[in-house]
Amino acid sequence: MSDVSEVLVYNKDNPFPAVISENRILNKEGSDKDTRHVVVNVAGIGHRYNIGDSLGVFATNERAKVDAILACCGFTGDERVILPKVEGKVRIADALSSNLTLSQPARKFLDSLRGKVTDDDERVHLETLTDPENRDEMKEYLLNREFHDILEEHPSARFDPQELVGQMRRLNPRLYSIASSSLVFPEEVHLTVAPVRYTTNDRERRGVCSTFLSDRAELSSTKVPVFVSHSHFGLPEDDDTDIIMVGPGTGIAPFRAFLQEREKKGAKGRNWLFFGDRSEATDYLYGDEFEAWLSSGLLHRVDLAFSRDQDYKIYVQDRIREQAAELWAWIRDGACLYVCGDAKRMAKDVDNALRDLLMKEGGMSETEAADMIKVMKKERRYQRDIY
């Protein structure tokens, strides 16, 4: 007989059924951005998260997209299908809602569709589209459409339920950097979420998980399956170590957690924050908290980069270059550098600014600067959480 006091272990394969207890907009009135502070209640999860960890969230697809696919295929929704790694047969409506990705169809779907259409014009269109000479056109076509778009454009196609789900990828969880310390909020996980909304093919699109959290999950009622994903990203073991944090936009999330943790532990190391967004008046995320920490002395300094508050664009990497001399002094004396946020541009630009800083202020050659960065990464003095 098992011990009734035994704590359940929740993980990716056995997520915890959490609920959202708070969902508020962080941007002020007048902003053209929408960034949410989402509080996930994890009371009963049985283990604490660590600084730098992420929360994995299993979302559901929009009901309208599920219904559109069912209508295109003439399904009732009760048809049963078999899915990889799912025990038994499930209703296709449930599979489309919770298990499968309804966007980003692949080339193989067009190939399969070509054999399913009965209309000559539709067949000719698909044959032209999948011709190797039209590769770029096909990529553009797929990039701008989701499964229901393509099915609506080819109404003569007929799939059986199992054939259709065989064309779709698994709906994977989305990871969000945790914006709170478990020492301060043991039964809550705070997230900083930017709902993804855009238009393709003259249709509004919405990010599955970001808009699930911001728009579709009802407070205190919708069950949100979650799990803690442990990370390499974290504070130095020595609380006396200085830290430099670079986190524009939603990249600020883990650094809010860092500061909560250091304040709670009474850490003596200095803390320097670089934050950026569009406008200070409307987009200074958690600004009241950071300014309070600056006043209390927890934050040694804050350097802000608001790109649209002047005639020319200013980004965090520009502030890093402006403060190169003092940053070098911190790094030379053992400070740890952390970067969180956009991987495509920001992280690369910050990396280049760091290299230039080491060359200019540290008197290093380009090769020596590159080697220094490698050493800092190996010693965990330069950590990145980028996406």
Question: Can you tell me about this structure?
Answer:
There is one protein chain. By secondary structure, this protein is an alpha/beta fold. It folds into 3 domains: 16-59 and 173-229, Translation factors (Elongation Factor Tu (Ef-tu), domain 3, Beta Barrel); 63-165, NADPH-cytochrome p450 Reductase, Chain A, domain 3 (Up-down Bundle), CATH 1.20.990.10; 243-386, Rossmann fold (3-Layer(aba) Sandwich). It contains 15 helices and 15 strands. The strands form 4 sheets. The chain has a 6-stranded antiparallel beta sheet with strand order 6-3-10-1-2-7, with helices on one face. The protein has a 5-stranded parallel beta sheet with strand order 13-12-11-14-15, with helices on both faces. Helix 3 runs antiparallel to helix 4 and helix 14 (346-362) crosses helix 15. The longest helix has 17 residues, at 346-362. It is globular. Residues 1-7 have low confidence and may be disordered.
Brief digest:
This protein has helices spanning 63-73, 92-98, 107-114, 120-129, 135-143, 147-153, 161-165, 208-216, 253-265, 280-283, 287-296, 316-322, 324-332, 346-362, 366-378, and strands at 16-25, 36-41, 54-57, 80-82, 89-91, 174-177, 188-193, 197-200, 203-206, 224-229, 243-246, 271-277, 301-306, 336-341, 382-386.
